[in-house]
Amino acid sequence: MNIQRTVGFALLVGLCQSLLAQQPAPDPKAQRTAVEAELKAAIREVQRIVNQPVRQLTRMPNMDVSIYSPGWFHEGAAKPDFNTVDVRTTQDVSYGKNQYISSDLNVGVVFVGTEVEFNPMTKYFYADYSIPKKKLSEAEMLEINRLYRVIGKCQKQLTTL
To answer: From CA 36, how far away is CA 141, in angstroms rounded?
Structure first.
């Protein structure tokens, strides 16, 4: 019985190898298209996570509000090293020292300081500099790290294709 299984397994392996050998080499254009699609999907997902809306409250006269000026962020952003950066280590949650925060761009609106962050290694993907960014959870930052590795891998593949 064991000999039959071994022979059957060997025949199956041989058949699979034969079928693989008959497969045509991947088309470089199709490979490039697939890698570009994977890259774009990873970028879209990073953008979705990083640009989540932050809860906004109407400013009331009794609120102690810290105002940031001019605006929330300066223009421009460093491109992260997608292969190595850990966005957990660059997360700045110093807004949390204030109960309510706002900026000269958001008159009449406040944000809860503990719900906001700045991260220079995700700023590259900020879509709107006129509003603060939602504080990301550990799971969201781990997902961004994973997506950054995908982006790095795809960028490397595109340079070799």
So the answer is: 23
Ramachandran quadrant class, 76 (left: phi over 0; alpha: psi -120 to 50; beta: rest)? left
pLDDT in tens, 52-72: 999 999 999 999 999 999 999
Q: How far is CA 77 from the centre of its chain?
A: 15
Residues 109-158 have pLDDT tens digits of 999 999 999 999 999 999 999 999 999 999 999 999 999 999 999 999 99
Rg (CA), the chain: 25
| Confidence (pTM) | 0.82
59, 65 Cβ separation under 8 angstroms: yes
Domain containing residue 48? 2-160
Classify each residue of 119-133 as buried b or exposed e, where b means 16 or more C-beta atoms within 10 Å of its C-beta: bebbbbbbeebebbb
In terms of Cα–Cα distance, which of 69, 70, 67, 77 is closest to 127?
77
The total number of structural domains that make up the chain: 1
- Residues in a beta bridge with 142: none
Q: Which region holds residue 50: left if phi is over 0, alpha if psi is between -120 and 50, else beta?
A: alpha
